[in-house]
Structures are given as structure tokens and as C-alpha cells.
Batch of 4 targets.
Target 1
Amino acid sequence: MNDYADWIGRSYSRSEPISERLVREYRATLAGTLAEAEMPVGLHWCLVPDTVTPDQLGRDCHPKTGLFLPALPLPRRMWAGGEIEFHAPFAPGDLVTRETTIDDVTFKEGRSGKLGFVTQRHVYSVGGVARLTERQDIVYREDPKPGQAKTPEAAEEWPDATAWQITPNSTLLFRFSSLTFNGHRIHYDYPYATGVEGYEGLVVHGPMQAVWMMNLATHILGHLPARFSYRGLTPLICNLPVAIEARQHEGGIDLRVRRMGDGVATMAAQAE
């Protein structure tokens, strides 16, 4: 693999106010999976999205690599996980500035082949004061090979878990993509998702699953967690009912999204 050291440290910043319309649309889209709060939790992922013209989109309809993110020689990409530190809540009307920096570029050899990871750091501030800091991990993969996919094992039962339930459908995926200005075709283009990237159907956004767990943690604590970390385990396919589960322990809260049909966990998180 080539040396990507020159990409590390690249940064940009953009600002956007939190509008009443955005708050209304976010609440309407995620109704039933939001904690009670003046400002709905996870809304920051709708702010200052990457906005590029059609000629600057890649085959997956994300912005082309090589614009800000490096052009790794691996065609598939998606969020792998991350960590968020909440310093103070946002408020309606806040002018939010996000500064984004590339922190690292690494490669690994996984069970499914070569993997590339790009780590970004985001700082969301209001009036020069940080309200939220985030590490975001993006994974790049090879195209799937026939017979490569393996079914993960069911997760252990959490008998005393606090749980919400939802069945994400294509309308929910479309509305969340619209809120976040996310053009990734795996969320709405069935022939592309199945025929090119090898998924079993439309894929539920990783950030949306993280939002579910973030809100369940906030619901249990009665306030924003100080820290929330999450990682994707396996893709969640549209129209499969899931349980959003949480169990408390002395050090905080363990959370997960688990398919109700086969018990497989698709994303895990910790909050404290």
C-alpha cells in the first residue's frame, strides 16, 4: 500500500445554525427511538454535511475519495465506529462550527481481505467553545467475493436488559439519508446494494443505529452520557425487526442493536 502520511493533519471547518425545521424533521423521522430532551440526541450528524456536485460523487454516491478523504485502493467504504465526548448540549438556534481533521490512515488484513481505516476527528463548537468532540472511524474494503459472507453467531441473552424495538423500513432509511445528506447507494438502491456491494438488501445506516443506542443511554441516565463509543459488528438489513438493548453495570451501560429473528448483534456500544 502507498504511504498516506501527507493526508494526516488535513482539516477544514464549516458552520451551520440549528434550525427549527431540522429539529422538527429529526424528531419526526426518529419518533419512538428518541429520549426526552430539549435538543434531540444525535442531531449533530445532520449538521454541515459534505455537499458536492454530482460530478464529484464516486460510484457509491459518496463524495469521491481524493477530495478530502484519501483515495485508498479499496472500493467499498462505510462507518466502522467511533467515540463521542459530550461536553454540553446544543440549543435550538445555535450556530455550530465543526472542525474536521484526518488523524490517521492505516491498513490491516482481515478475514474478508484487505481493510483500510481512516480516522477523522470532529470538534463541534458554539461561540468557540467545544460542545462535542468525536472520533470517527471509516473502513474501506475490497469488493465481495462469491461465498465469502459468513453468518455471525447469535449474541448471548441479556435477561434484565432495558429494550426498545423497531423494524427499520425503506422510508426510514430514505428520510435519514435525506436528513444527513447521505447519498450512499446501499441505503436506497437495491440493485446496487445487492449486486455490486454484495449485501442481502438495503443497509440500515450505522449512525442511525448509534443514534438509537445513544438515546436509550440518555433515557436510562436521565441526561447525556459523558462518553459514548460504538462499533459496527455486521450489517443490518432493512425490514428486519431489532431490539435496542441496554444493561447497566458499575462502570456504565453496555448497549447493542440485536436482530430479533436470529439474535445476531449488528452494533455494540458503551456509555458512561
Target 2
Amino acid sequence: MHLFTKICVSALREALRVAYILVYETEQRRIAMQGEATDLYIRTFSFWKHLTNKEKSLVNAGTHPVRFVRGAQLHRDPGDCLGILLVKEGQLRVYTLSEDGRDVTLYRLFPGDVGILSAACTLDAVTFPVSIEAVADTDVLRTEASVFNRLLQENIYVKAYAYEMAARRLSEMLWRMQQILFLSADRRLAIFLLEETKKAGSLEIHLTHEQIARYMGSAREVVSRLVKYFAQEKLVKPGRGHLTILDLQGLAAVAHNTRQLSAGGKGTIDG
């Protein structure tokens, strides 16, 4: 009996030791993630230095790391209020649906970008319906909508930042819609390729024709035909799943409508 008691006591001590280690490691991970979030927020959010210590603690407590797998739908209508999304890794696509069911890409979010329209329910003047999907496996820091809404009500610097960001995103969306409505497909493709080159910091663009069409708000067949014309003009070199830009100045000329494509390339393809 005495031996049995000793064994039980020893097992209990070991269990307590393991539990303590697990609790300690969990707390250390929480502190590390909180520190990482704070560091990212300091670098990203201009309002951070204007928060009180209480407000900073509120943000830290209401911010969580979330991973969205490729293809995941994060947000579909104004009723979906995820909160603020700060992209750490991956890519998100913000789009809207036309009456005929075609999705139109409005803009994309890359590492370091902030998703403000996912918290549109907290912004009284912003009611534009958008959807958000993960283009790749994406890690974000998500600040709960309730937390962000409280900051909006209590801190003028947070409110100013939120509406400035919303205005910037709405301006991007308006520019995208203007392109679709008023620019020919060849100019839109040239503009898109120039923008992608700048984002990537490379002349290699690793996108399929299907992806380019989706991001442009066009059809794959239109993009494929235009890429062929651009290749004939020595503007790009097509590859499997990628494009190499050969002539940046030539693309810029097409984008600004100061260069005409050869037969069949200009004005005959819309979409």
C-alpha cells in the first residue's frame, strides 16, 4: 500500500510538472505573438502612438493570428464582419459580383497590407458590398470588429485612419471600374503588367492567363489573344504559367495609348 501511494504521488508530481511546462510554453507563445502583433502594429498603423495603454491592451487582447487556406472565402456580404485584417504572409483578393454572376477583382492585399473593408460594419459611411478570398495560404492578424469599433468610438486618430484607408481602397475600386468601363483591353493588360512588375520587383510575372483575366476583370480568351499580340510586338515573352516582360517602355506606351499595336491587336478585342 505504501509503495502504491509513492507511485501515485510520483505520477501526480510528473503530471503537474508536465502541465506547468505546457502552461508556461503556451504563455510564452502568447507573449511572443502579442509582441509580434505590437511590433507589426507600430510599423503599420499610424494611430498606434496615439493609443492609451488601456487601448493598446484592448487591441492585444482582441487580436489573433489566423490562417486561411487557399480558396477560402473570408467575407461575402456586409453582414460578415471579420474585423481588421493585417496580412503577414500570402495574398487576399477583394472582388465584387456583377449582375450576370461574373466576379470583378477590385484589388489585392499583400504582406503588410491592411484589409479595412472586412470591418465595413463598423464604418457607417461605407456600405459597398465586397467579397474576399484567399488567393494563397494566407496568415493574418485579425483584430475583432467589436474591439475596432470601440476604438473608433473612443479615439479620433483611429477613426481618421479607418476612413482614410477606406477612402483609399474605394479610390482603387473606382479606378479599376473606370478601366473596365472606358479603356480598351490592350491598354488594361499593359497597365496590369506594369503594375505587377512593380509589385514583384521583377520582369518575371508568375501568373496564368486565367489568373490575369480574373484580376483584370476580363475573359481568358481575350488575355490569351492579347498576350499573343504582345509577344509579336516583342513586348513580352510567354511561358508556361508565367510571362517575361521584354519592353517596359513599349508597354508604357500601350498603356498611355501612344503606341498602336499591329493588325488585330488594337481596339478589336474587348472584355
Target 3
Amino acid sequence: MRLIQWMVLLRAALFLGGVDGTEELHSFELDGFINPAVVSNVGCGAVGVLDEVLVNRGDLVKKGQILARLDTRVEQATVEHTRYRVQMDSSIELRQARLDFATREYNRKKELFDKGAVRTFDRDEAENNMIIAQHELASALEQKQAAELELEQAQEILNRRIIRSPLTGIVVERYLSPGELVNEQPILKLTQLHPLHVELIVPVARWGQIQEGDQAEVFPEEPVGGSHKARVTVVDRVVDPGSGTFGVRLELPNEDYKLPSGLKCRVRFDNLLNN
């Protein structure tokens, strides 16, 4: 019986102290803050009058979703006009038909000339008509290509007046309303709340004890409370000499958006090895 107890104690000591007895598993807690992963002030790449804002404070938005528009009547008309020019294929079709006819006529006159049935003037005239038709078709194709480039540019100008969300998150603030002039100021403020970031200030005595990829338990302050799993994503490599601390960031999943940002929290690291 005593032998069995001794073996149990030995196995426990090896587990806590490491196989060679030089490492010790331990836990500790640190204070932290829960912050949004991204905060974005969303503006517009163009100057104009705000026509509509499609979201309000507190709304959940998806990446790429249209949030607001400037007045786009002039830009939209330019796009439609340029698109019409691009789609006008009749000019190219007509010039292609002329070239086909001129080419056939030249080949016929050349064949007759080789047989001595027509004059040199007739052959040269047919060749000249074919060359003119070739240039006319090439010019029409160049004009269409230029119109396509103009359409692309006009569409880009129009797109700059349509404000889309750069992220999936929450509308925190709405700065402007329809009818106001938009210049360089932001229109909306967005935050990304999935995932959240947990920021820690760690004493230098803990240097080397926390590694990227380590797991931790996060305990938000009341009334939120609860326990949540997080993973270390950043460990600063520079220690602040004034405070003797370094920063650590954890990524905290928040798919259901139940956790708000701005909370204080406690973070517990378990089963870490002493150096």
C-alpha cells in the first residue's frame, strides 16, 4: 500500500515539475481591456453633397455593403452615355462590310489585270479603296476601345461616390446627414467586434512565459461576466524601460456579438512553464 502511494506521488511530481524536474507548470492572472479589432472612420473619395445614408448607429453591416451615396446624377448620366457609345457596333459592322467588299473588288481587279483585261488605273483604284477601308475599320475599333476606357473611368468616378463598408461590424457613430457637403471628413464610424482584441500590460518578470499561440481564459467584468477562451496573437518584442512592462494581445472570438468592447477583464493563463 505504501509503495502504491509513493508511486502516485512520484507521478504527480513528474507531471508538475517536468520529466527532468527542472520545469514547473503554473498559473497566473493579469488585468486587461477588451477592445475592437478594428475601428474605421469611413469617408468618401470624392467631394459632393450627401444624397442618402442607408445605416444608423447600432446597425450590423457586412463588408462591401453600401452605406451611403453622394448625389450621382451627373456621374450616372456620363456612365450611361459612354456605355451607349461602347455598345454601338453598327459603325464597326458597316466598316467591316466595306472592307470585305473592297478586298473582294481588289482581288477581282488584280486577277483581271494579271490577264490584261483591265488597266493599271483600275487595279490601283481598287487597291486604294481597300486600304482606305482598312484604315476606317481600324479607326472605328480604336474609337470603341477609347470609349471602353472612358466607360471604365466614368464607372470608377461613379463608384467613388458610393460608400461601401470596409469590414463586417457595427455602426458606432453617424457624423453626417443627407444634404450635407462631404469633403474630407468621415461620414460614419465602424468597429469590428469579431474577433475582439484583449490587450494586456505584462510585467517584465513574465518575459518568456507567454508565447504566441498560448490559450487563456478571459473573464469580463460584471455585469457581462462569464468565461471565454482566447488565444495569444502578439507578444511585443520591446520592453518599455520606464514601466518595466511589455504588451500582449489575445484574439477573442465573438461570433454572436454578445460581448461588447471597452470592458475591463481578468485574463488567466494556465499550465504555463516557468523558464
Target 4
Amino acid sequence: MSYEVNDFQTDVLDASAEEPVLVDFWAPWCGPCRQLSPVLESLADAADDWTLAKVNVDDNQSAAQQYGVRGIPAVKLFVNGEVEAEFTGVKPEHQIQSWLDEHLPSEEKSRLEEAEAALDAGNHEEAEHLLWPVLEDNPDHDEAQVLMARALAFKAPDRARVLADEAEVSDPTLRQIRESVRTIAHLRERSKDPSSLPENGVKDTYVAGLDALADQDLETAVEHFIDVVRTNRGYDDDGARKACIALFTLLGKDHPITQEYRRTFDMALY
């Protein structure tokens, strides 16, 4: 089967709108290219979700220049006319397959991206609907567990904490979300027994914040917690400060509550 490109616009850019196109920039005089070529062709022959396009840089200098090809072999994955990922040089077949698995579009990746966007927009129920099929197929999917925990953090904090605790994540953002879920669950536990809280002039305000959190009145909760931060930041092991950070993290930076109260909170710290 010939994978040679006749027209870059048609064979790569236009075609990548239908399915991903893996482009191999090569030249006949390039020894490493001759090593890599049969590996890519073998993978392409077995694939049903992407195609291979081979671009001879001697015959397609403009395309090579446009996409910054400085050394060959250069491999670039095009999706919807844009470079999604790339690497240069020779790699063994198993490494290339792992690279493809990481970067090729999939329904699972789309669901995760859409769920994260829904969460950032405050649509937690929509995020749940997007994430359940992912977790049904793979209950141990760490990223999906953390995102689902974020979706459930306010209405089902105990379930959210279980999901967060089960997830093993190294990404800093996911780790922050996981810690925020744990904070909300802890605060909900505190709200069940206010008598265990230290007696202090800010206790009533703090309890009001906990009650608002339990009622999912998040704006009122933030207002009360900020008042506590202003007056006695260290109360209940810095609970009000931790609550605000957790709320802002789980709601997302573009949520109206975060937009309105984040600066006020930051000023209350000093």
C-alpha cells in the first residue's frame, strides 16, 4: 500500500478532519528514515482509527518548512488540520504505539474533556452523565474518579471522598481537586456536631458557613468563611481558609462565585 502524499492540503489537512493522520516527514537518503518507515507502515496497516501519510521533504519543502521540520525522520499527528503531537527520530514500535494511545482522540478522552468543561461551567449533573460511562468501562480510571468526585463533592461528599481516595494521581491539578474534595467532606462532618467546635467569637459565623455548605448555598458559605478568615483565621485548624480554597478549586476559576469572592478572600488573608 502506498502512503505517499500527492497533495498536502488534501491528503493531510483535509483528511485529518475525518480521521487523524500520522505524517512521516522523510527523505530517500535518510538512513534513520528507512529504519522508521516499516515500523510506521506496520502500525498503519493494523490501525482502523488513523491513517499514515509519508511526506518526502525533498519534494515537499514548503510543507516541511511550514511545520518546522528541522531534522528527519519527523513524525507529526494531525487532527482537524492541526498538529496534535509530534516526535523526531527513531523509536521502537511499542513506544510509538504507546505514544499513539496517549495522543489519538477517543470517546473516553472526549468525555473527560467535556466533563471537565462542564464542571468549570458549573454543570455538575452534566459532568456526572458524561463520566458514568467511563467509570462503568473502567472503574479504576483515576482521572475520571477525581472528576466524578469533584462533580459529587457538594451533594454527596462521602461518596466523593471515597472516589478521591481511590484515585492515584500525580497531576498537580488533579491532586488539588482530590484534596479539596477531602476538605469539603471533612467540613460536612464537622457540621453534624457543632458542639465539638471550640467556643470562640467566630464560632456562630463558622457554623453558619458549615450549615450553608450543607445546604449547598455556596455563596453564603463563602461569605461566612471569609468573615471568619478576617477575624480569626486559625479557628478550627484554619478551617475557613481551607474551605474557601476548596470551594474555589471545585467551582473553578471562571465560576461566578470564584470571580466575585476570590480577590476578597485573598485580601482577607492579610
